[in-house]
Amino acid sequence: MNPYYEVEWYDKETNTRVFIVIDQLMGGLAAGGIRMSPTVTMEDIRTLAHLMTKKNSVMGIPLGGAKVGIVGDPGGADKEEKLRAFGRMAESLLKTKLLIGEDMGISSQNVKSIYESISFNPIELVVQIRQQQGLQIQMPEGKNIDDLLSETFMDYLAGFGLMEAMEEAAHLINLDLEQAQVGLQGFGTVGSGIAMLLLEKGSTITAVSDAHRCMYRQTGFSLPELQVLKEHGGIIQPELFKNVKIVPSSEIVALPIDIFIPASISHAIHKDNADKITASLIVEAANFPTTSEAEQILLEKRKVILPDFVVNAGSATGFGLLITGQADYQGIFQATAQRIRGTVKTILTESLKGEKTPREVANELASYNLKEMETSERKVETK
């Protein structure tokens, strides 16, 4: 399916190039993050916008997916200038159908400044469109768009959603998280956040890898040790850790672990290493970490994979439930948990029959939900 809308804009005055893709418009709205990178391309944004649609659809949320790319250095002195240029170019979209959020290189404060540069509160757009549909969207007293878009709120929702998905998957395959040994590939923002959540659940982090090395300790790593690793940017420095086994990063898949979490690069699991994986549960915290050939190998080995667009749907699910009127602010975490757990149970129950990978089932569910939501929307429009 072709995107609903895509455009490339260039502002000569500020040397700002922008890619915008609205993959799907549903209920009059589409939502997605802004990515700033010197190397971002239209193809990247097109792929990520479609992924946003899948995240919403698989969770049964009637909200279109979108993505924005700004070519530039997120640490550059001209960042604010480029953000204002984007705001000027995209003003009509931002005031009528496109909701933006943080992504790589863009903070919630950056998003707030974009909206301020065009003197617009996006909650007004949501409220207006939902009122036209007969729905009432209200933020509780003392809360505003800053609370909804804050990094603290969105990051917590993301981690919360991931843990809900993992707990449901573990329950379905009779894996006790409190006894589980976990291997993390990548210890950046995503990997370190997952590690802290797992430690709270009683799991043991026994293996961590960066781009070059993997360190393993059967008894696991303590919170202070993992905080030291985080302070060093997730780069393993063996002299800082005692009684560890150091192996090449590629060997993490073969270590004796129960849960493997690729949290850094795409295609980390491929046909040449899938057969070596010892973990019974693979949780895709990175985007596209498993190739299709590897998935088939893992299916035959009865390994369970939680697909990336399900695992990483926490913030999208919570945000989507709020702005579509399916949950209020006070009940957002309970509603998010119920939606994610129900979706994971449906996907894995079908996949565990042995004929389809979890991704295949999830894709089918997303397509089915999307068609059902489109049908419902057409019915409303014809009334």
Automatic annotation (TrEMBL):
Question: Catalytic positions?
Answer: K67 (proton donor)
Q: Name one GO molecular function term.
A: glutamate dehydrogenase (NAD+) activity
A Pfam family hit: ELFV_dehydrog
SUPFAM superfamilies listed in its UniProt record: Aminoacid dehydrogenase-like, N-terminal domain, NAD(P)-binding Rossmann-fold domains
Keywords from the named record = Oxidoreductase
Per the UniProt entry, what are the Gene Ontology biological process annotations, in alphabetical order? L-glutamate catabolic process
Every copy of the Glutamate/phenylalanine/leucine/valine/L-tryptophan dehydrogenase C-terminal domain together lies at 152-378
Q: Which family does it belong to?
A: Belongs to the Glu/Leu/Phe/Val dehydrogenases family.
Q: What is this protein called?
A: Glutamate dehydrogenase
Organism (species): Shouchella lehensis G1
